[in-house]
Design goal:
The structure holds 2 protein chains of 2 kinds. Chain A has helices at 5-25, 29-54, 58-88. Chain A has one domain: Helix Hairpins (Orthogonal Bundle), CATH 1.10.287. Chain A contains 3 helices and no strands. By secondary structure, chain B is mostly helical. The chains are: A mainly alpha, B mainly alpha. Chains A and B meet through helix 1, helix 2 and helix 3 of A and helix 5, helix 6 and helix 9 of B.
Chain lengths: 101, 490
């Protein structure tokens, strides 16, 4: 039995949605950060699926770029989270209320 | 099995290589020497790199004159007049911002060269965005630019707000990037390629029976860009980040992010999705109307000048989007003209804010500007000119910039939208004029003069010179941007 490609796309869309929803609703910077990673991996799944259905290697190559960028983002993002944590002993974004938009 | 290596035209890559090379050079040298490098070393390398980039853009321009626009590295990068002019604008912004940062670093006692390393890398990413002819390359440029800026925003270790702003910018910025790259994946699924010229070719020669995938992808790309350029309703991060970031970084960020993101947006919408113009125009219509009017209205209620300029830059983003909305060749060159004249003005404006803000950046209230032009006529007059240029007063570049985007929009059948944008400009008049009049008001007397260090003075002077000289005589920049067309236009 083969799994239709559309299922992968739907799964990726659901993962992306979970990530986006989590980013908008959760209040811990670290969890929000993980949600971004989830979104990027949903993108990777989409790329790979399309790469398979289109029989084109370009989509798989794109995944490498997305992974490298995600790794670079982690490095910088964790650095920023640590520097905020050192000041406040908390990673909750609710306490970042010194400026009001 | 053989591997084909794509041919590379190194002249196209040269600006990116210079900026990134200078960044790596500074990084390696500062790792090798025993003591931290003096700020002057970093500033010198950055200014030299930006001048070298400007020289290369001249060579690129002549190359296009002779051989026409072209693509290279397997069509992933484009060399056209548009990318050359945008690259030059980024180089100018980088150089001016480096001069301002130099004095700021001395005042804030920041040692080492990391600041300049990051600024150079960010500028390299912005340049890559202006040249990118592939959605994945745009994504890479966007991330190279943004990751450097996340750290630069957090650079002021003394102020808590700086780190807070960086966290906000980082979370929302990476959210926007994820949305953008998901859009790229969906467009890839719909058209079978991420290359912008191939997307345009595919859409020109095929009729999509089920365009839903393409529309969803295009919409996500648009949302990603709207976040980056801070278009309403995706602007909520920008006032906080502008306020929290060290002031020289704010000016740098306002300039290069706008140039990079708008250049890529124009290439995606006008070149790749030009055939879908009837679909994306109504969405942009709403974005332009909201961005110009709401940006200006929220600026009026601000007391903090950095937030005020943040909302004013949202208002400007609306005007540049108006040029994008036209989707025509004059519209694209009007948007480029706007970017080219806005970038030096915004860097110079934030340079004045850096000086007046003082150490610790606690003097950013409008009240601190009361009587500035009486105490220090030169500094006050410079700020007044910069504000009036942003307002769009005749005889400054701001006037021609607004005029050209409005004219392009009216020609493209957007009379109603042009009226809405003008309404936004009219609302913006209130706070620009109020601030300008504050400069000339009577002060309370015993207020200290603001020290004006030489490097910042040069940067402010150049910004003012650009807006006055080309405001009186806009021919050269106008001619340049009119010849700087995109590689593929419908």
């Amino acid at each position: 039995m083969t799994v239709p490609a559309a299922w992968y796309l739907v799964l990726a869309a659901i993962l992306f949605g979970i990530g986006a929803l989590g980013l908008l609703t959760r209040r811990s910077a670290l969890i929000m950060f993980m949600c971004v990673e989830l979104m990027l991996n949903a993108v990777n799944l989409t790329f790979v699926t399309f790469s398979r259905t289109l029989r084109d290697i370009g989509g798989q190559a794109a995944v490498f770029f997305v992974m490298v960028v995600a790794a670079a983002e982690v490095t910088v993002g964790l650095g920023i989270v640590v520097s905020v944590f050192r000041r406040r002993n908390s990673t909750s974004v609710d306490e970042l209320a010194e400026m009001k938009g | 099995m053989s591997l084909t290596i794509p041919s590379i035209h190194y002249l196209v890559l040269l600006p990116t290589l210079i900026l990134f090379g200078a960044s790596l050079l500074l990084l390696v040298v500062s790792a090798l020497v025993r003591r931290p490098l003096r700020p002057a070393a970093g500033t010198a390398v950055t200014v030299l790199a930006s001048v070298a980039t400007l020289v290369v853009t001249v060579a690129q321009w002549r190359d296009i004159d002779r051989h026409g626009a072209s693509t290279t590295v397997a069509h992933a990068l484009a060399l056209d007049g548009f990318s050359v002019v945008a690259t030059a604008v980024i180089a100018v912004s980088l150089g001016l911002a480096a001069l301002v940062s130099h004095d700021w670093m001395n005042r804030a006692r920041v040692v080492g060269s990391e600041y300049h390393v990051l600024a150079l890398a960010s500028a390299a990413g912005a340049v890559l965005m202006t040249q990118a002819n592939d959605l994945i390359v745009i994504f890479l440029g966007l991330e190279i630019m943004s990751i450097g800026l996340y750290v630069l925003v957090a650079f002021d270790r003394e102020r808590t707000r700086s780190a807070e702003a960086a966290l906000k910018y980082f979370l929302l910025g990476s959210f926007a990037s994820a949305i953008f790259v998901y859009g790229a994946a969906l467009v890839y699924g719909a058209t079978g390629t991420t290359n912008l010229s191939s997307v345009a070719y595919f859409l020109g020669s095929n009729v999509l029976l089920r365009p839903g995938l393409l529309y969803a992808g295009g919409a996500l790309l648009l949302v990603g860009f709207a976040f980056k350029v801070a278009a309403v309703p995706f602007h909520l991060w920008s006032p906080d980040v502008y306020e929290g970031a060290p002031t020289p970084v704010t000016g740098f960020m306002a300039a290069i992010v706008k140039v990079g993101a708008f250049a890529a947006l124009l290439r995606v919408l006008v070149s790749a999705l030009g055939t879908q113009m009837t679909t994306w125009r109504p969405i942009l219509w709403v974005l332009v109307a909201l961005t110009t009017v709401i940006g200006a209205s929220l600026a009026i209620v601000q007391r903090n000048v950095k937030r005020m300029l943040a909302y004013s830059s949202i208002n400007h983003a609306g005007f540049i989007l108006l040029g994008v909305w036209s989707g025509t060749v004059p519209g694209a060159s009007a948007a480029l003209f706007y970017l080219a004249t806005y970038a030096p003005v915004v860097v110079a404006s934030f340079a004045v804010l850096t000086l007046v803000g003082g150490e610790g950046e606690d003097r950013h209230d409008v009240a601190h500007y009361r009587g500035l032009a009486r105490r220090q006529p030169w500094l006050g007059a410079a700020l007044a000119i910069l504000l009036l240029s942003q307002l769009g007063v005749p005889l400054t570049t701001g006037f021609y910039a607004k005029f050209s985007v409005l004219a392009a929009a009216v020609d493209a059948g957007g009379g109603a939208l042009a009226v809405v944008a003008l309404l936004g400009a009219a609302i913006a008049t209130v706070f620009y004029l109020r601030w300008t009049l504050t400069l000339f008001a009577e002060d309370e007397g015993d207020v200290d003069r603001v020290p004006v260090p030489p490097a910042t003075a040069i940067a402010i002077g150049l910004g003012v010179a650009v807006t006055v000289v080309f405001g009186l005589w806009p021919g050269p920049i106008a001619a340049l941007t009119q010849h700087a067309t995109l590689l593929f236009t419908p």
